[in-house]
Write a structure and sequence with these properties.
By secondary structure, this protein is an alpha/beta fold. 27% of the residues lie in helices and 15% in strands. Keywords: Metal-binding, Zinc.
Length: 341
């Protein structure tokens, strides 16, 4: 099923259902957030259910079977190509601003003329993000608990599991969620707001090695790390952070910067993730609780003893205040450490 949202376009765009131009001043019809299928609002109900594949069953009769087993075909979407589009077969300009013509693969992003399509190899190489993509052919069965079982193909040595907090960064996480679904298999991209990280981690737990990218703040990262501990997956996965919003202390420490707000840079970010080195991260927690300890020596109940007890309390308070003042005002590490002791 397509996931529609209203949008406008800076150049002539055509409906993939009736093939007429999308007209309007501010809202030029609907667009699918995953496959970029375009439609008039009146045409959306007649749109074919050909959104980006997620599982082997969704590919259907287009699947390629040969002596090597099953292979991934191209998934073509007609028209609305970028102005600079070049045919992958003849290297000539393709697409048009006058009509809906020529084709683009939703996975490898290859573009071809209609006349050149039969000359292009049938198997899809999955494009520049192939190391991170789980192809739909790898999601072919469901386990006894109702979760998909993924088999990792040789081309996907370290697949990427993406968690996005759509509420992060003043809701800018929504556009990152859309962009990741366009670049990867939508089945490997999860919104933390809808169900948390458990479902995604269950999908990947059969892999010997996989990577996780958390798009959000420190709270989102901590949430995913806690779930990894519960499922005991810390030995088979590595976690990266794409900071959204403000704060993001962990992302700063790991070298990913304070914040990311440009979703057009995601292909380059995915390439950096594939080459990134790993660092060990210690996680710890502090538990506080209250206990009652009987005093070792009680003060005498005489007036003189009460005055003496009050004197000791006042002296202790003055000492604590002095040490705190040194910690807050001193610029020397040795003084701070000595006062803390």
């Amino acid at each position: 099923m397509h996931n529609w949202y209203a949008c406008s376009h800076a150049r002539p765009t055509f409906c993939n259902v009736c093939k007429d131009s999308l007209s309007g001043v501010t809202s030029h019809g609907l667009s699918c957030e995953v496959c970029k299928f375009k439609a008039h609002k009146r045409c959306a109900v007649r749109a074919t259910n050909n959104c980006k594949w997620t599982t082997l069953a969704s590919i259907g009769k287009d699947i390629i079977e040969d002596e090597d087993g099953i292979a991934m075909p191209h998934q073509w979407l007609e028209g609305n190509l970028p102005v600079s589009a070049k045919c992958a077969v003849c290297d000539k300009t393709c697409g048009s601003v006058l009509r809906l013509q020529d084709w683009r693969c939703l996975w490898c992003k290859a573009m071809v003329h209609t006349a050149c399509m039969d000359l292009y190899p049938r198997k899809c190489p999955l494009g520049q993000c192939k190391v991170s993509i789980i192809p739909p052919t790898a999601l072919n069965s469901i386990d006894s608990d109702g979760f998909w079982k993924a088999t990792c193909p040789p081309s996907c040595a370290s697949p990427l599991l993406v968690f996005v907090n759509s509420k992060s960064g003043d809701n800018q996480g929504v556009k990152f969620l859309r962009r990741f679904k366009q670049l990867l298999n939508p089945a490997q991209v999860f919104d933390l707001v809808n169900g948390g990280p458990h479902l995604g981690l269950r999908l990947f737990q059969k892999f010997d090695n996989f990577r996780i990218l958390v798009c959000g703040g420190d709270g989102s990262v901590g949430w995913v790390l806690s779930e990894i501990d519960k499922l005991n997956l810390h030995k088979q996965c590595q976690l990266g952070v794409l900071p959204l919003g403000t704060g993001n202390d962990l992302a700063r420490v790991l070298g990913w910067g304070p914040s990311c707000d440009d979703d057009t840079q995601l292909p380059q970010i995915l390439e950096k993730l594939e080459r990134a080195s790993t660092k060990m991260l210690d996680r710890w927690s502090i538990m506080t609780y209250e206990i009652k300890i009987p005093p070792k020596h009680s003060c005498p109940t005489t007036p003189e003893g009460a005055d003496n007890c009050q004197f000791h309390i006042s002296a202790y308070e003055d000492s604590v205040a002095t040490h705190l003042t040194k910690i807050l005002e001193s610029e020397h590490h040795s003084v701070v450490i000595s006062s803390a002791k």
